[in-house]
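User: Hello, can you help with two protein structures?

Assistant: Certainly.
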Amino acid sequence: MSKLEELLLNDLYIDPVGYQVKLGSREIDLTVKEFDLLYLFARNRGKVVKRSEVLQVISTPNMSDEEGAINIMICRLRKKLEDNPHRPRRLVSVRGLGYRLKE
């Protein structure tokens, strides 16, 4: 990430310097990897972020189940950002490609 800038997407506020996320007036508690992934999505809002790009953000040296790790991370983000994580409206899947953060 070259330039760290605050982002505002409707009611979602992201501060990359303070690692702070707010949804409306509610502060959202994210892990560092969740935050980094959300910031990637926010910087590319409206565009598809491929699963390989997601993996670059969340991978660890000893990761064995990459697909499972991606699914778990997306699920965690949706639980924290969506009204109904089972029917996401904000962080949506793009079948066969990856994910898109809608504005």
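That covers the first. Now for the second protein you mentioned:
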Amino acid sequence: PWNWFRMMSGRFSRSDLADRYLDRKIFHGATFADLARRRPYTLINATDVSRGSQFSFTQGVFDALCSDLDGVGLSRAVTASLAFTGGFAPVTFRNYAKATCGYRHAAWIDEWLADPLGDIRAHDRASAWASYEDDTRPWPHLLDSGISDNIGARAVGVLFTVQGEPWSVADRIESGGVKRLVVILVDARSGGGSKLDRSPKSPGIASAIGVSAGSPMSAVSSDSIAFVQRYLEDLHACETYFILLRFEAEPDPDLRARLKDLPTTLALPPDTVRMLVEEGPRLLAASPDY
């Protein structure tokens, strides 16, 4: 209750409470500067509310904000990534004026924007990136990453295709700096049978909203997985390994059904957590590429 007065200010929300809780209980003040610099490459994503586009916590994106990713708390990024509509308020970041940091406009942005009817995915990504160069957007607001990419695979595509940037994986691959590229993609979608089909009664508003949010995400997730698979199949500059982990690969039908029936929630019982922890290595060992 002592937080209610703070939330009345308009500048403090449930997301700020979640950020502080995660920072205190899990991350203990850690920032992006504390992450490993080489491998594995850790990428956290959210959704830009105004544009509906993916926002990736990379230094490249924060260059466009004239900001330093190293100083961003991991709890802040994770809160933005999980801030689903209704449960949390958008997480706000500052976009500083470009004259303050010597920002350099990247050539790939113009290249991708020049052909709006070519690679539409690349064009839209460049358009979203260029929007952060606009000083009339000083406060980008971020929500749940699932709105734009439920499993985060599309952000990997940008790392693989953008060249001429310090963070480019594509340049390292082309130069021979990457000998083996291993992509481990975790698809933890729930897939239990819908209870809506068990009754002739029309679904209520809450049920309809839940289905309309979840079903399209599942379809787009499959498309994202296929995109990464196609890219790796066409990449011949290094050895590639694609490891897909999903509950459908669990051979035990009873366990598979229990896993697929798990809810998306902020809290799980200890027994459920242990079941998930044990399942990860089993699925990994079953992958042919692994």
